[in-house]
Sequence to fold (461 residues):
Amino acid sequence: MPMNEYLNFFKKNKIFTLAIILIILIIILVIINILIFNHSSFTIDNETIHKNNDNYNMQINYPVFSNNEINKKINKIIDEEKDKFLKKIDKKSNEKNELNIDYNYTIKNDIYSIQIRSYSYTGLNRDFYFNDLMLYINSKDNTELTINDLIDQELYNVLKDKCYQYLKDKEQDLNLYDDNMIKDYLADFGKDILLSFSEDELNIIIPPFKVSDDETDFRIPLTYDDTSQFLNNKYFTFPQVEEQQPPIQAPSTPRDESFFQDKKLVALTFDDGPNYKVTTFLLDELDNKNAKASFFLVGSRISSQKVLIKRMYNSGHSVGSHSYNHKNLTKLTDEQLMKEINDTNELISQITGEDVKYLRPPYGSYNKDLLNKINMTFILWNVDTLDWQSRDSQKVCDSIINSAKDGAIILLHDLYQTSVDGALCAIDKLQEQGYAFVSIDEMIKLKNIDLKTNTAYRYFK
Ligand code: NI
Fold:
C-alpha cells in the first residue's frame, strides 16, 4: 500500500487510530516508570532531627534511601521510638532525658548492611534503653532483603560456636555474665541476630547487656573463609581461593618401608579444617619435612576447598570425616546421624575417589550405640594438645614432645596458625629423636593392624 492509502485508512478508522496512540502512550509510560522507579540508582542520604529543651535532648540521625518503602519503614520506627521515649519522660521533673538514634553501614558486593540503633536515658536513675535494627538493601535493584535471603540457616550453628569461643577467649578482658546466661542468649541465636557484611569480614553484633554488664556492644569478626559456604552466592562473591592453589601434584609414591626402620611412629591428626591459609601452609611444611599427617574434615567446609583436599590426599596424608556440621553425634536422631555421615563421605570420596574409612566423632563423643550404627573405623586420640585453648605454639610444641610415644595419635586443629607452628616445631625435635610422622594409613600398614570397622582406636600398639 502506498503512503496516502495508509493515511486514508487511518482517517476512516478514527477509533482504531486513537486506540493505537493510546497503546503507544501506555507503553512509553510503563518504560518511564520502570526506568525511574524500579531501577532508579541507589542513593543514601542523611537526615537529622535535633531537639533540645529543659526536659530532654533528642538527637536523631537517620538514613534516607532512594526507595520510598524503606524510608516509610524507617520513619515509622523513628516515630515509635520517639513515642516510647516521650511517654517515659516525667514532664514535671527537670531531669535531663536523652534520646539518640544513629546508624552506620557496611558494604559487601551490592549489599548494604545498615544498623540503626536507638538508645535513651530516662528518669532519675537514668534507665538505659536501646533497640537495634538491621536493614539489608540490594543497591543493584534498590530492594530490601531479609537476613534469610542472605544466609543459610545452618550459619546460626557456626556463629553460635564462634561467638562462644570468642567470648571465652576474651573472658578476662570482658565483664561477662555467667556461663549459663551466655548459653541462654546463644541458644536463642538467630531470632534477632545482627549481622553486618563488609568487604573482608562478617561481623556479629552483640548489643549491650546481652552477655555482659558493659554498655558497649561486641562486634565479633568472622572470616569469609569460615562462613562463605553459608552465604547466598546470588548476592555475595568471594575471590576464588582455589585459583591460588598450585597445580595439583600427581599422587606421591608411598614412602619405602626402609625409611621407617627402627623409628617410633607418631600420627598427627588435624580436625575441624580445612582452612585455606593455615592448611596450605601446613601441607607445604609437611612436604618439606617429609612428614605425613591425617585430616578429619568438617563436611560443610569441603566444597569450597576441593583443590586443597585433593592436594592433601595426593601428598599421602589420610583424609577422614569429622561429620558434616560438627554436632555431637550421640545426640542426633538416626536420620540426622546418617545425613551427617553420608553427606560428608560422599563429598570426600568425590575428591579422593576412595571410600572414607575413618571417622573422628566431634568432641570425641561416642558410645556403643553409635559405634554399632556407623560402619567406619573411629579414630580417637591419646594425646590432646589443647591447642584450641592455649593458642600458643610453644605450649603445643611442648605438649607433643612431652607425650610422644610410639603409636600415639595426637589431636590438633588446622584452624589456628599457632597449632601448625607448634606441630612443626615438635616434628623437628622428635625427628632428631628417631620419630617418624605417619598418616593413619601408614601407621596401620606399618604396625600390621587388622583394622576393624565399628571400633574405636585411641592409639596403635
Ligand atoms: Ni572438632
The two ends are 100 Å apart (CA to CA). The mean pLDDT is 88. The first strand starts at residue 44 and ends at 52.
